[in-house]
Amino acid sequence: MIDLKILRESPDVARDGIRKKHIDCDLEAVLKADEERRKLIVDVESLRAEQKSANAEMAQMQKGSPEFLEKVGEMRTLSSSIKEIDVALKALDETWNDLYLSVPNIPHESVPEGKSESENVEYKTWGEIPQQEAYQIPHYDFDWLEQILDFKRGTKVTGAGFPFFVGDGARLARSLVSFFLDQAGESGIQEMAVPFFVNAESATATGQLPDKEGQMYQTIQDGLYAIPTAEVPLTNFLRDEILEESDLPIYRCGYSACFRREAGSYGKDVRGLNRVHQFDKVEVLKWVKPETSYAELDSLREYAESLLQKLGLPYRALLMCGGVMGFSQTKQYDLEVWAMGQQRWLEVSSCSNFESFQSRRAKIRYKDLETGKNEFVHTLNGSGLAVPRVFVAILENGLQADGSVKLPEVLVPYMGKDRIEPK
RNA sequence: GGAGAGAUGGCUGAGUGGUCGAAAGCAACGGUUUGCUAAAUCGUCGUACGGGUCACACCGUACCGCGGGUUCGAAUCCCGCUCUCUCCGCCA
């Protein structure tokens, strides 16, 4: 959620942010509910103050005396009107809260205007994009695919979108995870192993609930949610905590399987490994002081880029335009890797600054040494990286004339060989 | 899964219906004292929301695991839930 002060004192800033994000949000209703709510609070609190001072008097009185009994009568009336207002306030609070949560974060001034993907700004491209290669084959059309990936049996065992990785495929997926975690460790990012299920409070704090409930798998018995990204448990790790200023910045990363129902997806997007219901990913999290968060965003993006560079995979970095970036982000870069076989870009990382939007919701603060006050930290996160699409790019870009796949140098120690050969 | 015990401020821990936001101690922070360290001593020492202020100050309200209830009044009584600990069972 955004700062209430901004809403109240400069609603135009919020209004412009909503416009830039092309999100439908009734700001007037939020402001109206806020005003009504505050009025009721003042009412009920002044009555409570009255009740409290009367209680102090009554504590001194002779119990059962006529004056005491008279006071009891008076207070009975007061008490019931307090209860009445309380009920109204509770109802209003709920409406107001829903409205408040529906206000998106305000995009940073450097975020380009735009509504569709075509208006994202290509920030940078890296690597040679091979054109017109003789063996441009999408990975899902490899004739020896079943040697490393088994979609059919995945469908039998679980359902569409839950492939088995087999043999060298399984090892390649595991190698990527290890490579990503090792790289993070070398960059001073502490590794965490996280729970793959979270409760409703956690899912709410990071913004999956209430609006994205349909995108998550939920357990029947305990009402837990399978995580769509390690961002959820990682961000919630420090939920409801007040940190020391000297603790910041905090860098963490975590591997997890990510579970997404992907309701509404179709077509070429879901072919092969392009979009699956369960995939491996390493996520990087940062908790930082507000004044550093945009520099931290740049270094986060550069870190994610460095992984693709070390793997030798051509990619582009996009600065997302207002209408395409997420609801909670103020600024977002996506990294897309080039998949030669499909002749298309595949998103493998998304690096975002949330400023205090998440920390406000999750109540993650730090004590500012100068003012002595508790301030909300800024949170950032970025994929570093998602496995399946990197896997795809390695297969398609590394495909050789003889049908084998040449592996990136940096993975050789993990794979124990430099290519995957069809049998 | 079964039986029992418990949950109070950063920590330890008092408090069983009425000036309790909550004793005391520890830790922390600031001052004084001291040749340094240590010790002593005085003071400060929660959070949120609302009002107020340019900003402080200040004022009000709420919060003693969470949610309900009883009562003029609840940390304290009643009900439900969650979590922690101990014992038993099961188990990678």
Question: In order across it, which strands form the biggest sheet?
Answer: 1-10-11-12-15-9-8-4
Question: Structural class of the helix and strand makeup?
Answer: alpha+beta
CATH topology of the largest domain: BirA Bifunctional Protein, domain 2
Topology, number of strands: 17
Distance separating the two termini: 54 Å
Helix content percent band: 25-40%
CATH class group of the largest domain: Alpha Beta
Order of helices and strands: HHHHEEHEHEEHEHEEEHEEEHEEEHEHE
The figure for the number of domains is 2
Oligomeric form: single chain
CATH architecture of the largest domain: 2-Layer Sandwich
Categorize the overall geometry. elongated
Query: What is the strand content?
Result: 15-25%
**Total of helices:** 12
CATH superfamily of the largest domain: Bira Bifunctional Protein, Domain 2
Low-confidence segments: none
Largest sheet: 8 strands, mixed
Q: Whole-number radius of gyration?
A: 27 Å
Mean pLDDT: 91
Can you put this structure into words, describing what you see?
The chain is an alpha+beta fold. It has twelve helices and 17 strands. It has helices at residues 4-9, 11-21, 27-60, 66-101, 151-157, 168-186, 200-205, 231-236, 293-311, 357-362, 387-398, 412-415, and strands at residues 121-126, 149-150, 164-165, 190-193, 197-198, 225-226, 241-244, 250-259, 278-288, 315-319, 331-339, 344-353, 364-367, 374-376, 378-386, 405-406, 419-420. The strands form five sheets. It has an eight-stranded mixed sheet. A three-stranded mixed sheet has the order 7-13-14. Strand 11 and strand 12 form a beta hairpin. Helix 6 crosses helix 11. It binds one RNA strand of 92 nucleotides through helix 3 and helix 4.
